[in-house]
Amino acid sequence: MPGYTVEIPEGRERGIRVTCQDHDExxxxxxxxRTVAFHCPKCGYEVEVTLHDLHExxxxxxxx
Length: 64
Fold this sequence. Notes:
Elements: E1 4-7, E2 16-20, E3 25-29, E4 35-39, E5 46-50
Antiparallel strand pairs: 1-2, 2-3, 4-5
């Protein structure tokens, strides 16, 4: 199975960059997307990535 790299570029509004390491295909998704789907046309796999910022995480009990 091919390897993938997920990066969060530096900056105030962070997007997501997903790269297929075997084929050097990549796509950068704009800030604001929490879940993205990356498809490498050369290997035929689609990878879905969900970003969770732990600094924004709250316990469900705190939301009441």
